[in-house]
């Protein structure tokens, strides 16, 4: 039972208001700032954590990382309090409850709603993983909603407890040997004892399975360790859902972490699938499984296997024991069957460099025979070539597929929030290819001109194919107008995609392919050519901003004076670098917003400034104008522009007038 009481001080800047919850790591209190009465949630860790010097040191060391983790789908950590026997994480207060509460009320969710919620979780994980932050304990209890859930909601998910998982992980490892909750633990955690970004993806896959079915895939009779070990040895019971949806769930639950998509790829998949299943009703809650299907020929996972992954952090590497425990004799041996190789001459065998007359004659005879055989082969080749020339390309006709084919391709999400997927079908009777290109957005609307490259199916063709378009106005891409070289490129005009929505356009072109492999390769080549043109570092151009903008730089003067508006310039960063000659936005603003800003954020409503200047600046109610108020030696301005949400200026100082 906590001895804390409402009204107690929490450090020097907060006051406890009321107790609102408890968890394995500690108690959660509603707290308010003594500076401005703002309300926060404060998770006060258990006393044993405060008495652990290693945890306190980790707590202080990770303060800047946790406070710097900013994303609309992540609960923002505002402060970490270390005072005496008190360790607390102060974060935004989210009032809509948890996904655990939602599951308790709804039991299961329709597929479209479950996919939309899960996509938002993956959005937050994408940003965290980019900063090398691993959550380690994704579950419904750690996913909050900004408001009580209603069908059709978007942008309501807030992932919490990054700080708890990071700070307390060492003690969890020492006490239980497991990191996380057994029902949601990735197989490599049981096999290796450490987490990677892929483990977060797996846990979110378990959460999606639970939203769809009402239970986790490996829950059943037995202890926590029994349940945890099923993640390694058993297959998830299949749900009564469409094949494509089940394949997406199954990909997230792959046993090998290298077979799982990244968080960004998973988010794009969730958003692509959600509109397809708007009419799919929620499942009846699944019964508890008594008998699990074992993995066929499970692979033995070595403890060092994942240490070679490129996405491991120093913290993960340090979590592996320096001295591996003695595991005893192996129950069976791995049998190696090496391919036979030619044995080189033993080094001590003498080499005879003298050649007899008979040996010289033998060599001469072999040479004549070799020349004769070569001539015969050449003659045969000439005959065969002549026959081919006179019989036409009948062989080519046999290499054209006479069956209908389908292919699909998915791009990585772009910094602007754009995701692109391509679905292609081949009609052998008409020798025609149809490509459906779907553009999906995240938190910001996107518009303007888009680029697509559609090469001929015949790699040796001199001309680009004729393409007819539906759902968009299109014309041939002109390199001279855009400064971007794109052979067989098309400029799609007037594209408009609302926030958290998608647009599908269709291209039809003549072509023929030999088989499925060639069709897949053609679609991949079209996507690669499009992306190569858009991301060409040699192209200095402002064309296609929704597809090409990679970052935004916040520029302020290094020094300004109090009681004056602070000039702020948003500089677009292209693959070729920052473009200071064509700013995206300038504050204070005058006139109409730039076309570039409208393309990536809608208009000025997609721009917001904030600060960490402790009251030294004031920001207008619309978030667009910053005014310097009082003297400070260090202040930085934060900005959110469309899907770019973690922008920050270099430090500046505010002084009085000379």
From TrEMBL:
Q: Does the keyword DNA-binding apply?
A: no
The protein's matches in Pfam families, at most eight in alphabetical order, are given as: Pkinase
Superkingdom to which the source organism belongs: Bacteria
- The residue ranges crossing the membrane are 369-390
Q: Under the GO molecular function aspect, what terms does this record hold? A: ATP binding; protein serine/threonine kinase activity
Query: Matching PROSITE patterns, A to Z?
Result: PROTEIN_KINASE_DOM, PROTEIN_KINASE_ST
Q: Ranges for the Protein kinase domain?
A: 14-278
Q: Where is this region: Disordered?
A: 401-421
Give EC number(s), comma-separated.
2.7.11.1
Q: Output this protein's name.
A: non-specific serine/threonine protein kinase
The organism's lineage is: Bacteria, Bacillati, Actinomycetota, Actinomycetes, Micrococcales
């Amino acid at each position: 039972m906590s001895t804390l009481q409402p009204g107690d001080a929490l450090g020097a800047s907060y006051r406890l208001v009321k107790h609102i919850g408890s968890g394995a790591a500690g108690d959660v209190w509603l707290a308010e700032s003594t500076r401005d009465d703002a309300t926060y949630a404060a998770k006060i860790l258990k006393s044993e954590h405060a008495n652990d010097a290693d945890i306190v040191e980790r707590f202080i060391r990770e303060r800047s990382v946790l406070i710097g983790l900013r994303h609309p789908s992540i609960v923002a950590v505002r402060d970490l309090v270390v005072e005496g026997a008190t360790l607390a994480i102060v974060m935004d207060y989210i009032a809509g409850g948890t996904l655990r509460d939602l599951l308790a009320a709804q039991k299961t969710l329709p597929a479209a709603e479950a996919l939309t919620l899960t996509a938002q979780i993956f959005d937050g994980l994408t940003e965290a993983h980019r900063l090398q932050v691993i959550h380690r304990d994704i579950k419904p209890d750690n996913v909050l909603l900004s408001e009580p859930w209603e069908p059709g909601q978007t942008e309501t998910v807030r992932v919490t407890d990054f700080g708890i998982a990071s700070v307390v992980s060492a003690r969890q490892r020492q006490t239980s040997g497991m990191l996380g909750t057994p029902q949601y633990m990735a197989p490599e955690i049981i096999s290796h004892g450490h987490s990677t970004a892929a483990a977060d993806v797996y846990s979110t896959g378990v959460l999606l399975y639970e939203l769809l079915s009402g239970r986790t895939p490996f829950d059943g009779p037995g202890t926590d360790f029994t349940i945890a070990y099923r993640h390694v040895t058993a297959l998830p019971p299949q749900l009564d859902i469409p094949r494509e949806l089940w394949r997406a769930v199954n990909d997230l639950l792959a046993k090998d972490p290298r077979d799982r998509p990244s968080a960004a790829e998973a988010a794009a998949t969730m958003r692509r699938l959600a509109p397809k299943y708007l009419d799919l009703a929620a499942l009846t809650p699944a019964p508890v499984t008594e008998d699990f299907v074992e993995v066929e020929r499970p692979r033995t996972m070595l403890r060092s296997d994942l240490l070679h992954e490129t996405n491991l952090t120093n913290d993960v590497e340090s979590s592996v024991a320096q001295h591996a425990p003695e595991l005893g004799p192996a129950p069976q041996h791995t049998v190696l069957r090496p391919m036979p190789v030619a044995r080189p001459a033993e080094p001590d065998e003498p080499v005879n460099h003298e050649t007899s007359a008979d040996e010289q004659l033998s060599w001469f005879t072999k040479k004549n025979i070799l020349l004769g055989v070569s001539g015969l082969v050449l003659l045969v080749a000439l005959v065969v070539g002549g026959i081919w020339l006179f019989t036409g390309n009948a062989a080519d006709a046999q290499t054209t597929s006479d069956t209908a084919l389908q292919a699909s391709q998915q791009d990585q999400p772009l910094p602007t929030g754009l995701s692109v997927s391509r679905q292609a079908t081949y009609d052998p009777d008409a020798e025609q290819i149809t490509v459906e290109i779907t553009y999906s957005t995240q938190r910001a609307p996107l518009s303007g001109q888009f680029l697509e490259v559609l090469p001929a199916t015949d790699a040796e063709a001199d001309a680009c194919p004729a393409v007819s378009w539906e759902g968009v106005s299109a014309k041939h891409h002109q390199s001279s107008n855009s400064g971007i070289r794109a052979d067989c490129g098309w400029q799609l005009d007037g594209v408009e995609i609302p926030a958290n929505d998608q647009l599908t356009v269709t291209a039809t072109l003549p072509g023929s392919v030999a088989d499925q492999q060639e069709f897949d390769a053609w679609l991949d080549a079209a996507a690669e050519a499009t992306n190569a043109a858009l991301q060409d570092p040699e192209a200095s151009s402002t064309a296609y901003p929704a597809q090409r903008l990679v970052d935004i730089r916040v520029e302020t003067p290094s020094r300004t004076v109090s009681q004056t508006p602070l000039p702020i310039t948003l500089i677009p960063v292209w693959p070729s670098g920052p473009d200071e000659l064509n700013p995206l936005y300038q504050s204070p603003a005058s006139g109409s917003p730039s076309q570039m800003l409208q393309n990536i954020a809608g208009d000025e409503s997609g721009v917001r400034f904030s600060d960490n200047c402790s009251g030294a600046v004031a920001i207008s109610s619309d978030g667009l104008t910053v005014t310097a108020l009082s003297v400070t030696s260090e202040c930085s301005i934060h900005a959110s522009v469309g899907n770019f949400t973690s922008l920050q200026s270099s430090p500046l100082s505010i002084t009085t007038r000379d």
